[in-house]
Amino acid sequence: MKRAGYALLVFIALIAVAAPWLAPNPPDRSFTDALYAPPTRLRLFHEGAGFGEAGPRPPFIYHQRLVNRLERRFEADLSRPAPLRWFAGGRLVTLPEADGGPLLLLGADGFGRDIFSRLLYGARTTLALAAVATLLALVVGALLGGAAGLAGGMVDEALSRTTEFVLLLPAIYVALALRAALPLVLPASTVFALLAAIFALLGWPVVARGVRAIVASEREQEYVAAGRALGATPWRLLVRHLLPAASGYLAVQATLLLPAFILAEATLSYVGFGFSAGVPTWGTMLQEAANVSLVADAPWMLAPAGAIFLVTLAVNLAVQGSGRSPVQLER
Question: Is 62 inside any structural domain?
């Protein structure tokens, strides 16, 4: 199960990296006649072909014709088969409008944008933000917790009280309050940096508390005393000897923080405090699925929720497969 979890995480990461090549359409391209269009059905056989008549090379699609804009009803035009274009325009597969497209593997949103393409590009932003925030939380928490565990005394006491205070706060409400205190309209790069800093600020105390406990128990070991006798500085002892002892705990914390930060980005973007609606992320895409009646008619709008579920499932498989909990590693 552990290998399956890590394999799924690597697979999702590779898909996010290859998004420009895998996405059939640009993520910000709007198709005016495809608002809330259903997913394009791939075909292998031409239903409109007569006996002995050769159809288009499979797989192909039929052009979707808008029948009723108000009811958001589409029908496949069996007289207009359109073969897919492979390895064209720097994309794996695509289909221009002029050739019978667009190719909408997961349908379109309320602006006529390809949900599948936006899902892939959104994975790049959402996963990158979660990864950066996780790395920051691990680095800050490991250094502060390790320093407190090695120094002891007042330093250890101050860090313990600080981490307890932060851990008592409801993290999602603190994140909302910190983001709401800043200007709402900001460039995407600025929002990325701010959210990464906010998430790291809320995540490092958990890491620091566990690392502090591990370092405090390891500092009395013989190899640490030998290092001191040889003249090793506290910084060298911490970085070269004590922090590696907490590597297992840090790995588990990384797998726990990553999905938490993904959900945090989705929550902030969903309520309007994250990225703007024009930036494809899993959170901004879920804003389109806020209308329950709309989701009943267009369930493909929930594709970002399915992606978040897959990442969370992969992380849980990896953690459960490790056979040790964070508490066991801390001890």
Answer: yes
Cis peptide before 59 (omega within 30 of 0): yes
Nearest to 6 by CA among 319, 246, 247, 257: 319
Same structural domain for residues 72 and 186? no
| Residue of 213, 217, 215, 202 lying closest to 162 (CA atoms) | 202
SS3 186: coil
Contact of 207 with 141, CB cutoff 8 Å = yes
- Does a structural domain hold residue 197? yes
Domain span including residue 54:
40-103
Residues 136 and 62 in one domain: no
The domain that contains 180 carries what CATH number? 1.10.3720.10
User: pLDDT tens, 132-170?
Assistant: 999 999 999 999 888 888 887 788 788 888 888 777 777
User: Measured between alpha carbons, how far is 55 from 80 in angstroms, rounded to an integer?
Assistant: 11
- H-state helical runs in 152-246: 153-168, 171-180, 188-218, 222-229, 234-236, 243-245
pLDDT of amino acid 106: 92
From 179, 163, 205, 141, select the one nearest 264 (Cα to Cα): 179
Contact 268/184 with Cβ under 8 angstroms?
Answer: no
Identify the helix (H) or strand (E) that includes residue 299.
Answer: none
Measured on CA atoms in the order 154, 155, 156, 161, is the torsion positive or negative?
positive
